Amino acid sequence: MQRIVIVGGGAGGLALATQLGKSLGKKGLADITLVDAARTHVWKPLLHQLAAGSFDTHAEEIEYLAQARWNHFKFRLGSLVGVDRHNKTLQLAASYDEAGREITPAQQLGYDTLVIAVGSQTNDFGTQGAAEHTIKLDSPQAAKHFNDRLINACIRAQTVPRAAGSGRLTVAIVGGGATGVELAAELHAAARVLANYGFDHIHPEKDLQIVLVEAAPRLLAQLPERLSESAMRELRKLAIEVHTNEKVVEVTADGLKMASGKVISSSITVWAAGVKAADFLRTIGGDDPLETSKLNQLMVNGNLQTTRDPSIYAFGDCAACQQPDGTWVPPRAQAAYQQAMYLTRALPRLAAGQAVAPFVFKDQGSLVSLSEYSSVGSLMGSLTKGSFFVEGQFAKLMYWALHKQHQLALGGFKKTALITLSEMIDRTYRPRIKLH
């Protein structure tokens, strides 16, 4: 029986394990194993809501063990630390609890086909002080840590005299991409709700100052300019302070220093600028490493096979895949989802020695959520040639639909319908902001 090991339980990795489990594992045609360092999955585009406290992790987290049981694959807890390509084995590090007690020992897994989908992490570009003084919003753990810092800072701000002309609490966000823009809007909405839960002095315009810093000339620099203009217009309505063309050269415990000489004070600093693949991917093969890009991504061919080993695949943010037109697949959730669906169909055929057409990314556009206030986006190819701009309630509906597509891939129609119903019920009695 073919052994397929998938490392990384993100949006793409978990979807692939689920679909392969249904199509191959259920029929006994393959042994599917998913490996991840965490025990639960959270959809990464929701991390800004988790950070702001407007997202209930217990309602949204997917237990890998339960998902594996329901969909005919296995789950192993652990972090990938090495691959022996000659013997086709991978090494997993021991895992530990918060007290330092060992949960699982270091272990070794054999494979016939290895799929690496470990995602990406925030790239601080070696900026002085960034590692010590910022929270990098690239994991559920980091988002929860930020939320704890935010609630504690709000409680603290209740007793700290306000300096003239400044907010009691300042949150600085480095990076004006989708994550930074979405977090800024979500924090503004959260501050309004917090005032109803005893934080009567945390007013989003007067007492909470939100600062967004971007090195590029405009926000959402990778997206159409019209989206940037719309997002900037919405943020200005919310009195969010935006600095473009400002490169951060140093982060301190209480602020940011810019290349221009400008200094911005900050109570909490979030780094949301740039991504890269994990450093360990550069040496994953030991003396015979796989080929990687400057951002540590594994180089893959059109079938998503690594360039130096056809039995090892990589996709999502951790893979560098060049398209026939010379462009590269972007590090987006929709790309990882499309690649997962491609591999669901391609892996059985490639294992049987059959030819498979190369993967081609189909850009369906981009959507940016501005919390309860609005959403903006551009949709491509589905209704018109080229792209068309959407905003407001329709864009919010499309953003919601993307989340439902992810839930459908993991749980099917019936389960997604029940989850949606429970979300509607929850809104009637749960606090809108998580306070612990």
TrEMBL record:
FAD/NAD(P)-binding domain residues: 3-340
Originating organism: Polaromonas jejuensis
Similarity field: Belongs to the NADH dehydrogenase family.
Broadest EC class assigned to this enzyme: oxidoreductase
Gene Ontology molecular function terms on file: oxidoreductase activity
InterPro entries referenced in this protein's UniProt entry, alphabetically: FAD/NAD-bd_sf, FAD/NAD-binding_dom, NDH-2
EC numbers for this chain: 1.6.5.-
Keywords from the named record: FAD, Flavoprotein, NAD, Oxidoreductase
Name recorded for this polypeptide: NAD(P)/FAD-dependent oxidoreductase
Domain of life: Bacteria
